[in-house]
Fold these 4 entries.
Entry 1:
Amino acid sequence: MKTTVLFKQILMKTTLSFCLTAALSVLADAQSGSGGCSGSGPCNSELKFKNRERETGSNSNPVGTRYRFKSVTNNVDALVTIDSLVNGATVEEIDESGVGHESAFQPRVKVPGGLLPKTAYAVFRIRFVEKNDTTRKSIPEVGATAIDIDGNLLLKEFSEIEMGSGSIMSFLSTTPHISVLNINILGLLKGFKGANILGVELDGIDTIAKTNMFSVTNQNVTEFTMRAGSSYLLASSTERQHSFYMKSFTYPSISTLPVKVETFNAILSSSSKVDLKWITATEVNLSHFVIEKSYNGVVFEEAATVFPYGNANTRADYAMSDNIAGATAPVIYYRLRSVDKDSRVTYSVIRIIRLSKQAENNKVTILTYPNPATNEVRITIPASWQNKKVVYELFSTNGQVAKKVETNSSNQTESLNISSLKSGLYLVKASCGGETAQEKIVKQ
């Protein structure tokens, strides 16, 4: 569907308003040094990582090399040590300037690439000391934010921040491009890991892209650890820029969103039609919905505009069909964009429709991909199972249930997050009514 002149005007106002608001927010952060903190949530002053000097080590033997960043705050220096390099990773630049934010810690890490799946990363240990000395110094409150955790189809970046017990993590949980997991050692919380899951490459290093960042804060910090690297498959050697802003950011909460979408489903009803259905619990100040469609999961185009029933605090049901008779791509991605009258925009989860003979017939078989899988596995079920209750189970080699998910109204293709599972062989089993189907996958 072509965009109308009126909708183009709305889109232009949305973009201009968003960019102006984001620019003013970043400017205010830079002037105040507060990291955009206001209202609820942890706040702290920014630590400035500039003016480095190498104190020990060499380029030929980088592990153990220590750098001093002078005056990160009043009368406090930071000692940054390359603690270790894993699976062939190298640190090409300890703190790159000219990109991102000059006061951020921005290591450029090279991963070797190869034909086999691998994860390579650098480990940095940060210790606070008295100015021009090595006596440890405690900072009352420290915030660190990993920015621009992006990737592509073959390579996905990740960042880890370990500040120990008592640390608090925040991120944009409504429309994330990353998954954020707890790091526990012997049952104790040590930190958090943010890993890219969508494989969308972002330009530059930008704090406006809150979908690709997470923040960690803690109190009375003398030392903490950060890791920067990538997981990849069939990728060539490449250098990736990582950025850690030494402050925390405020992320929008669900309560501030214009509409609460409870479900968004995509059902392949025939070889030429996809039924899209969604349910809202509340609609406050809502302007319209936009159905977006993509054939690669990266670039989305507008498929239709749907206007709401009006402000409501009760359940509202919506449905429309998309004609796919001329589609030639094997996979179609759908998402729902909600736009409110103040130009704020939110996105639903992405639903996947697979156009294959296996998806169109009623054979009791399932299709699992990618295989091997790293962060998520997608399961395409028979056409006769769609819109029904389906149970998805992953079994380890010892027969134990490693993950179980139930859906009361299953989409044609469901995505299961398996980033927390150990590497190895798993059996994927799907059940609907009295029918079952199963496939084997490898978790990297």
Entry 2:
Amino acid sequence: MPREAAAVKRMVYACASPCPPGAASTVHVFEIVRGLRSRGWSVDLVYPSYLSGDRAGALVRLLGIIATNTRAAFRLPRADVLYCRSHFGLFPLAIIARLARVPVVQEVNGPYADVFLGWPLARRFATAIRAAMRWQLAAADLLIAVTSDLAVWLRETVGHAAVVVIPNGADTEHFAPTDRREEATHPYVLFFGRLTAWQGIDTLLDAVLRPEWPASVELVVAGDGPQRSRVESCTKEGSVRYVGQVARADLPSLVRSAIATISPQGSAGGRNRTGLSALKVYESLACGTPVIASAWPGHQELIQEVGCGILFPPDDASALAAAVRRCVEDPVAARAMGARGSAWVRRHASWDVRAQQTHDALLHELPRADAHPSRGTG
């Protein structure tokens, strides 16, 4: 049974970015909120209302951040904790919370460099933005990192002692293996997720052209993003099939039918050096499908310790193609890797497990609400 929240029960959860349906960040936010609510928390989730993603201009995004700060600030007087999905745009809200003596949690999903991948124009203000982010992290009562390497980076960069590691998870009710394997008409390996440069899309598409790639296997790509046109142009080669954005309800079947899924994040932008905790990896393993992943911290330890997939050097298309061939040539070993991964995710990485870890961290690490006598209880 989930343990009830004690002194701290009322939370404002703030995100500076929108929560479009199906996005990995949206899944993470909504699943943690749902899990906390089931454990007795009253969670007021605040995020920008626009859902136009990369097509939103800088002004629209900035107005969304201002609106989020404003709405969250008005809710703070009745909150026992402010939980931020860490973002430079929430700097004003963090200051207000500090002045109001509301404990602050910062969930950190990447280093400072991530900001400039999403906001290229912000590079001209890099010094100020880094200073604002560092202050937010240093002033927080608790930092939650999604990888162990990111936690090390936080301790070294910010000098913060209260850092806990809570990676991504999977919905093990919907992403689950079936008693009978779903065989595809044409054998394929699968990539699903955002089509961006840092995801390693170029390496993925180059791998199909390498001699190591098995001729009988298709690469199926599901998702949308800036590199969609690059993917679509490669469908003419015959070994790449683009299926567009797939509804989350339909993803488990697509994952289960694949020989393996691929998580090929590269070195573009340097964002992967503090480790990865990709949602696609946990969801694939939950379905009993092995994962072929670039050997970044986070994924590397998981795959090596559990024996649930194959690692390849980042940006190495030939090695990726060879990993696909290994899965094709030894299907028994591939299925065994998937089975080990599914069992591990059910025990250790369901969203219910992640919500419990978050709940425990909040209770054990945050100042008690009654430690702030200036704040009312009504």
Entry 3:
Amino acid sequence: MKLRALRLRHVRRFGADGAAVDGIADGVNVLAAPNEFGKSTLVDALRAALFFKASSKHRDVTALVPDPGGGAPEIEIDLDHGGQGFRLHKRFGGGAAARARVSERAGDRTVATGDAVQDWLREVLGTDRRDAGPPGLLWVTQGRSLEPPAAGDDTLESLLEREVGDVVAGERARTVLERARAERERLVTATGKPKARGDYDVALARRHDLDAAVAELEAKAAASERTRARLAEIDARLGELDDPAEAARLADALAAAERGLEAA
């Protein structure tokens, strides 16, 4: 699944005019704005649209209602999945006010409505866990690591997992961690020192050789610069000797010296 656009109305600080983030492309997309401009609201709205039914009364949904004035939060998401473009639209509220629909962006054909929308999302996302986030995404829920740990769950790892969420229900995260540990054990000893003749040890030795070569070249460059400066001085002196006026002056001085010598 690839997120392409997020639009919302009547969500917290955003009233009837709403807000939109369009043109989300492949690769890294950066959403930047000063504090209190609604960045967290956009992320919370995205999470609510993906993981809660339109009729939900969960506190994370009711927290989206604008105050003052109230209103039914509406969230629209454009996404790509399986080579197709879809549009998810949710209006949160009780009774007939609650609406949910998934349609194809091209042609507007309805894919799912009502509670069936959540079944479609579960299939697309691969999970319905609200703290997991979409597969392959580090889903950051602001401030979760500051919550007290659950009973019997007081490890640093559990706190970090709660802050960044899980990747594909945690399985991929554990796989990545195990591979990272195995790679570390291949490169260094238990005390963190490079393993003899290992890749890390060879790389450090190579770096040492390159540092020595750089130092030698820098010394040669400094010596060359001194030689260049001396040659510049000699060249300037030769230029003076080749000057006709200077040559005549020196000849006059030499003749005067010779006359003085004869007179003596």
Entry 4:
Amino acid sequence: MGKMDSKKLPVIPLKRFFFLVIIPLLLLVNLIFYWLYADQKKREIFIFTNRAESSLLAQKKIIEKFANNIFSDLNSILNHHELLSFVNMEQNESQEYLVHDLIQFAKFKGVYDQIRYINEQGMEKIRINFNNGRPVSVKKENLQNKKNRYYFKDSIKLGKNKIFMSPMDLNIEKSKIELPLKPMIRVGTPVFDKKGKKKGVLLFNYLSRNLLNVLRGEKKTTPHVMMVNKNGYFLKGLSKDEEWGFMYENKKHLTFKNKFPDSWNLIASSDKGSFINKLGLFSFNTIF
């Protein structure tokens, strides 16, 4: 076997070698790194989305639990023997006993700003004010007619064992928003006598700050939690200044739709979901 003449070996020019070997190799390495990065990014988005959706589901369950507790309380008073006696006028002392029991009930529960019995004409007959933890019965001369308030109209027209639950808003006293602000949910149900005649409405004013405080405590797992009503107004916003816009003439523009128009269009078209846009990851859920 003879020696190979080194002068006869093919010589690849450096420039050609660079284009044929080095550049493809760099492209392959970059492609691998991109794939690893994209896969990692996909995993992170999956984790963040799951975390956000789980947090929202937990908060939804909290709200539903609060609602069920209110319904249970309302039903217990609706079937309370003193209320039934009062409605049927079976005992002269029924109202006195009922007022006493409602005061004790309000004190024990600590979550109802007002408990009222309103007759079919819209006149308050019994009103218990929470009074910062010292419930009192409002004197007869200070009771008001509520026939024009939406919560009375929506409650009195219901059938037996049906419950009205208002949207969350701010409490109004004597045509003015009460200060300090009192977020409120009103829950009412019609009251019938033993003959089946509708006599009035039993109404609870639930202090929603209890619920909002619990939800604010949940933001440790989901930093930017917002709650909006069906019209997109903030009940719980990124700042307190943008909350309750629908209650103020000069804040009517403060809506989720105006703040995040593209995101709102997606959220308004579905009950729940997640999506990513230029602003980041949005996860949402709806409570009926």
